[in-house]
């Protein structure tokens, strides 16, 4: 069973995340940030990862620590659940349209983390949330999950649609990349014999 639970407590946040990579996309998310909850719920649904998130952060200051730390812990949980990555497809990619918007994501579960983020927003906020925080979440998630992740908004106008399409594209790409490959020999999908440095 490819599942994991990770807890992390600092002076700024307390995060609990439990997930199952082979789930049905069930979710139970409470971060104290409504729009962020909505994005994580969509991420769970479209990645087919069962996800439970509990986050308490210093929201009286701003949302930065909460959003970034959820990315850190969620990435750690994915990496823990993947283990040595034996038998996975490793690569995944997806295009997601939402009305006038089109975004794409491509993933290599390489254990050599990297983020390419080509996403711009016309508005500084969506709801109460600063749009600059989304790059922070994607960076924290990719770094701690060990993903080489490229996210690009090809075109779009509505900030909500742009953000949501980026989350959904990443979720669909991750779903493909972490699937077990029936043609695999059961080892790591690398000529090196293992993933990572």
UniProtKB/TrEMBL annotation:
Keywords: Amino-acid biosynthesis, Cytoplasm, Histidine biosynthesis, Lyase. It comes from the Bacteria. InterPro entries: IGPD_sf, ImidazoleglycerolP_deHydtase, ImidazoleglycerP_deHydtase_CS, Ribosomal_Su5_D2-typ_SF. It is an enzyme of class 4 (lyase). Signal peptide: none annotated. Its EC number is 4.2.1.19. GO terms for molecular function: imidazoleglycerol-phosphate dehydratase activity. It catalyses: D-erythro-1-(imidazol-4-yl)glycerol 3-phosphate = 3-(imidazol-4-yl)-2-oxopropyl phosphate + H2O. It is found in: Cytoplasm. Pathway: Amino-acid biosynthesis; L-histidine biosynthesis; L-histidine from 5-phospho-alpha-D-ribose 1-diphosphate: step 6/9. NCBIfam families: PRK00951.1-5, PRK00951.2-1, PRK00951.2-4. PANTHER family: IMIDAZOLEGLYCEROL-PHOSPHATE DEHYDRATASE, IMIDAZOLEGLYCEROL-PHOSPHATE DEHYDRATASE HIS7. This is Imidazoleglycerol-phosphate dehydratase. It comes from Hyphococcus luteus. The gene is hisB.
């Amino acid at each position: 069973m490819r599942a994991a639970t990770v807890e992390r407590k600092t002076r700024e946040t307390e995060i609990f995340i439990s997930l199952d990579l082979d789930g049905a996309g069930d979710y139970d998310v409470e971060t104290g940030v409504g729009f962020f909850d909505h994005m994580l719920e969509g991420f769970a649904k479209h990645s087919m990862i069962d996800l439970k998130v509990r986050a308490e952060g210093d929201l009286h200051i701003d949302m930065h620590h909460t959003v970034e730390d959820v990315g850190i812990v969620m990435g750690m949980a994915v990496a823990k659940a993947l283990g040595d990555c034996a038998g996975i497809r490793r690569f995944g990619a997806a295009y997601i349209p939402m009305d006038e918007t089109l975004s794409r994501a491509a993933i290599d579960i390489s254990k050599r983390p990297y983020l390419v983020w080509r996403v711009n927003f016309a508005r500084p906020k969506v709801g109460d949330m600063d749009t600059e925080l989304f790059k922070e979440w994607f960076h924290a998630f990719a770094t701690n999950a060990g993903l080489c992740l490229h996210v690009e908004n090809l075109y779009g106008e509505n900030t909500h649609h742009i953000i949501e399409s980026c989350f959904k594209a990443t979720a669909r790409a991750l779903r493909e990349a972490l699937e077990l490959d029936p043609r695999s020999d059961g080892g790591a999908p690398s000529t090196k014999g293992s993933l990572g440095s």
